[in-house]
Amino acid sequence: MNAALKSGLWMLPMAVLLASGCQKAITVEQQPYTEKISIESLLQPGTIPRVYVNRTVPFFVATETQTPSSLFVPDAEVVMAGGGEVDIFRADSTFNRFFCRWEPFYVGNIEIRADTQYELRVTHRGRTYTATTTTNVPAVRIDSVSYTSAFTDIYGGHEGVIVDFVDLPNQDNQYRFYTTRPLHNKHETTDDLEYASTCLPDGEFVEVTEVGRFVYFDDNLDGAPVRFVAEPAYTQFEGDESLVYVQSLDEQAAFFYDTLDRQHEANINPFTEPVFLYTNIEGAIGVFGAVNLSPPYPFVFPEDHLN
User: Fold this and answer.
1) 47-87, pLDDT tens digit by residue?
2) Greatest distance between any 2 Cα atoms in the chain
3) How far is it, in rounded angstroms, from Cα 105 to Cα 136?
4) Of the N and C termini of the chain, which has fewer Cβ atoms inside 10 Å?
């Protein structure tokens, strides 16, 4: 055996030893935790409003043990006033047939009007939380929708839906990707869970809504053409049909979802600076804001999801 080979054999266990020496188990002591109320409601003209009222949980609680039903606060009083009318909400729920679970919320009775100021009041165990918003968010019109089999963002490489439109001039605007499409039990989520529906029978479809993570601000792009690329939340097959929208948000909603996304980045990337979650509801976590949707743009996926 030559000297070089002997040296290589000697260096290998040393490298392993050095690498293993960099690992250290750290015990994190659980601190006392006081739960807070989380309130989320986005008003869109022409729709019946919903308000999601939930409780927060500690950071180290296992995510898979938490469901919309287990987090829901069922004993709140929810009232919304606007346009000279007062709407008293009631607890309700829908069954998400893709995820096989009930999703509870509070629902109103009066359709949301455009260009109207609304005040939300949520009362729970003697404490009242209030916020206001105005439904004056303008909608854009999509020029084209296309597809790319490869684009890269901070989360890695993906397929993507490309949306082109023109920014509305002389105002601050914020946008998100939004689409609806039918899925069956062969579709999966594109996150780390890769979840497929366990309660949909073969051949049966259910319509789902996908909302993009990223919020696009028109800083320095006033009135200019805009293009953004969004990774679908579910896998697709060639010929899958969808309706694509651009969701316009007011500043309050945009700031909330932008900081929420950046908090998610900080959880998975140690080199990302953590941020405080924006809220416009004093004493609570969440947002009461206004949104609007562009006219739908039909889009057909040109290829199967690439593994």
Assistant:
1) 999 999 999 988 777 666 789 999 999 999 999 999 999 99
2) 92
3) 24
4) C
